[in-house]
Amino acid sequence: MLSMPLPRHLRLLAVTLASGLLALVAIGTASAIQPRGITDEAHKMNDLFWIVLIVALVVFVLVAAALVYALVRYRRKDDELPEQFHGGGKIEVAMVGVPVLIVIALFTISMLTLIEIDDKAPDDALTIEVTGFQFSWQFAYKMSDLGTNSDPNADPDDAISIIGTPQNDPILYLPVDEPVEFLLKSNDVIHSFYVKDFLYKLDLIPGRVNSFTVTPRETGDFSAQCAELCGTNHALMRFVVRVVERDEFDAWVAQEAARQLGEDTLVSSSGKQGD
Amino acid sequence: MATVEVPQLSGYHRPAVLDWITTVDHKKLGILYLYFTLFFFAVGGVLALLVRTQLAVADNSFVGNDLYNQIFTMHASAMLFLFIIPVWAGFGNYLVPLQIGAADMAFPRINALSFWMLPPAGILMFAGFIVDGGAADGGWTAYSPLAQQTGVGMDMWIIAVIVLGMSSTIGAANFLVTMFRMRAPGMTMFRMPIFCWTMLVTALLQLLATPVLAAALVMLFIDRNYGGQFFDPNGGGNVVLWQNVFWFYSHPAVYIMILPGMGIISEILPVFSRKPLFGYKAFVFATIGIGGLGFSVWAHHMFTTGSVLLPFFGFMTFMIGVPTGVKIFNWLGTLWGGSITFPTPMLFAIGFVSMFLIGGINGTFSAAVPVDFALHDTYFVVAHIHYVLFGGSVFAVFGGIYYWFPKIWGRKLNERLGKLHFALMFVGFNVAFFPMHMLGLDGMPRRIAVYAEGAGWEALNMLSTGGAFLIAVSMIPFIIAVVWAFMRPMDQPDDPWEANTLEWATSSPPPEYNFDSLPPVRSERPLFDARQGSGEGH
Ligand code: HEM
Ligand SMILES: [Cu+2]
Ligand SMILES: [Cu+2]
Predict the structure, then answer these.
(1) B26-533 maps to which CATH number?
(2) B53 within ligand 1 shell (Cβ under 6 A)
(3) pLDDT per residue over B272-328, tens digit each?
(4) Best residue in B65, B144, B531 to probe A by mutation, most A CBs within 10 Å?
(5) What does DSSP say about strands A180-186 and A126-133: parallel, antiparallel, or unpaired?
(6) Contact A128, A209 (CB under 8 A)
(7) Any idea where the domains of chain B sit in the sequence?
């Protein structure tokens, strides 16, 4: 085996490895691109993603280049035994030091982003209670908690709610440019509220309430779905996030309130403005 | 070095089958482990192909949603619990006593018991497919309360995993005692072959972590069958408790699944670079470091539960990148300045280094907590799992098979077929798993049986499925090479590769008692020293 001519092995190795690795770098740079997201928080997380991606690509290219170089440069040319180098001293310090520095830098940046996105909702923010169930979602909007258009006189129990089915994806209406607080609950198994364009997910866990706040900045329809295996029809636990202007949101609330709560508790779109 | 003329006992011969069933010889048990685990690699592979067939096109109805959940759960369970964890016990069984110059494991009968616990467990787990309600379908992670809902297949899965855990716990104790007590004269701890070191740390992890999993599984079994409420919030239990105990085991377990593979390629790279491993002690300490840190990062699987201390677990997870980086330097430094040849074991070792590099790097994306909020439970994580476990562990398994085949069976696997096997597998692997990064970034959740037309995931999924089938095709040259090797006579010398460690000092295959005589051990490379005609010292 060792006496077989080398170039052929080498070509094989070079072709598979080099083309594989280079293709990966190329594809990686060109298309490993996360959507930028539609919320303030998503934009910050996406910035962090790009920092990590760039550091990752630099590390990858340097190490992969060193690997390919070593394989080509140090292939066996004669029977002489190479220098029997065991390593030691300075190089081993660098072996530990370089990764430590990279890792601490990345950790620090991640924590800064974590602090930035972990904002508390203002008291008057729109609050939506999300309940996941096998296999769809319920979105409940309290009439007393509708954000800039809350009805301070509304019965605290009055709420409109949207309930989906696996065949009929529910629509989650959000007003643009306003902070929204989500309260996440489940009564059966664990689900996960995942909106790709929020770049965010948070689990719905029986026995606990999780919450988070985002401020959407773009109008439109965005598809979303459950991200935690929850049984047979987990894959069908989809929903649509519909971000609209405030008037349109108010009109939708009025229409749903009329339908679900009857005329008397109707919040007219002319606006009994809250405080 | 060793003589091959071993006088054979004449007279009574046990029938071969009986001989294999009753053997307590570590080499035969090692071979049984290899057969058993490779069988379940094939089974898990077929299940993976079903998964990929289902996901090839949007809105597919090839398998129903229910069956799909069983298939991917059993795919992962087979690959992890019945293939990758016990395959290291197989390599370890065969190699550890030979590498430290011992005649057998410390407790040969317990060793046999460890192995014989596996087949019933494997059968029990897969028998789930024929009972009412089907096999376990809650994912290999069996998150509660979902794991409370499914049929009796889940109970069978729980018992099977408990039995498998017992097998690896007693196996671990056996490995530790063997390495602490039975090393050849002159073999200090820091002259032990690097593969033994990785088995040692793996055994420690198994000993410390597996009982925790067993306890969690027993609690789950009680919840399911005897009205327990450990994980039931309605009875005062805690849903997230399951995840804490499960990952307290399963994060260390991912190192149980990869460390011996790192050991294997750290045997192969020096031999085919004709240099010692660069930074032997750094490698040992990095291995111990990974083992230690491995117990403090479990909650990085739970960043989106809203119930863990994000900065702490984020920090510890990043820190694990350090010993991992050290190892990459160890391997590069070994190649650097060497005299490198490229037989098949070396190709797989180099494949390991390059793919594990990617697996380490994409893991740091998830260590960055806010980035993980997007990536968790998407296909990005599936890509990560497979770059480490397939690009890493599985490549190491095949590297090890090509490397030690001459020792174990006295024959060499054909080089051309081996190289073809490597090339197909390397390309197929990347085609199958690299696109999953993009799918995950584009929001495709894992563990979904169907995705809608127009989600934009069709092309990459089709590509990935093509890659999976290419991996399956790559097994054809391997199988041919094995069959062909067995049709030929045993012709391998003691040390066909000019290797370094003691297993190459005896005949191929070794006699039942392993060694006629041992060379002196004055460094971690006794055979190299013997070839050079001097003790080099270390
Ligand atoms: C032919 C090779 C393989 C293919 C095509 C393949 C494919 C897949 C796919 C598509 C999934 C995702 C299933 C889903 O989320 O719906 C998956 C999950 C997984 N695979 Fe593989 N796989 C292969 C080999 C392996 C190997 C060798 C291992 C381990 C050594 C492994 C371990 C896992 C694990 C742990 C999961 C996660 C399962 C879960 O979370 O339930 N796979 N695999
Ligand atoms: Cu779900
Ligand atoms: Cu982990």
Answers:
(1) 1.20.210.10
(2) no
(3) 999 999 999 989 999 999 999 999 999 999 999 998 888 899 999 999 989 998 999
(4) B65
(5) parallel
(6) no
(7) 26-533
Cis peptide before B83 (omega within 30 of 0): no
- Beta-bridged to residue A175, according to DSSP, are A244
Does ligand 1 come within 6 angstroms of the Cβ of B353?
no
Q: Which residues surround ligand 3, an ion (CB under 5 A)?
A: B 251
B308 touches chain A (CB under 8 A): no
CATH of the structural domain A126-274, one choice from 3.30.70.360, 3.90.550.10, 3.40.50.1110, 2.60.40.420: 2.60.40.420
Nearest to B239 among A31, A205, A235 (CB): A205
Residues 6+ apart with CB under 8 A from B174: B105, B106, B107, B110, B111, B114
Q: What is the pLDDT of residues B7-55, one digit of tens each?
A: 555 667 778 888 899 999 999 999 999 999 999 999 999 999 999 999 9
Give CA–CA dist A83/A80, Å, rounded: 9
Residue in A27, A49, A67 nearest the CB of B434: A27
Q: For residue B510, what is the DSSP state?
A: P
CA B362–ligand 3 middle distance (angstroms): 13
Which two tokens mark B190? 């820091």
Q: What distance in Å separates the CA atoms of residue B421 and residue B398, rounded to the nearest whole number?
A: 10
The answer to whether the Cβ–Cβ distance between B278 and A85 falls below 8 Å is yes
Mean pLDDT by 10 residues, chain A (275 residues): 52 64 62 79 92 87 87 88 81 84 94 88 88 95 79 77 93 95 95 96 95 94 96 95 95 89 51 36
**Dihedral pair phi/psi, residue B279, rounded to 5°:** 70, 55
A206: three-class secondary structure by DSSP: coil
Interatomic CA distance for residues A126 and A146, integer angstroms: 5
Chain A residue with minimal CA distance to B144? A189
Best A203, A211, A234 member to test B by mutation, with max B CBs in 10 Å, is A203
Whether the CB of B220 sits within 6 Å of ligand 1: no
Percent of residues in chain A assigned helix, strand, coil, to nearest 5: 45, 25, 35
Q: What is the ipTM of this complex?
A: 0.90
Rounded alpha-carbon distances, angstroms, from residue B189 to B92, B180, B197, B283, B523: 17, 8, 9, 13, 11
Q: Which helix (H) or strand (E) holds A109?
A: helix A89-117
What is the nearest CA distance from B170 to chain A, expressed in angstroms? 33
Three-class SS of B460-492: HHHHHHHHHHHHHHHHHHHHHHHHHHHHCCCCC
Transcribe B205-254 into DSSP letters: HHHHHHHHHHHHHHHHHHHHHS---TT-GGGT--HHHHHHHHHHHHHHHH
Using a CB–CB cutoff of 8 Å, tell me whether B493 touches chain A: no
Q: Where do the CATH 2.60.40.420 domains begin and end in chain A?
A: 126-274
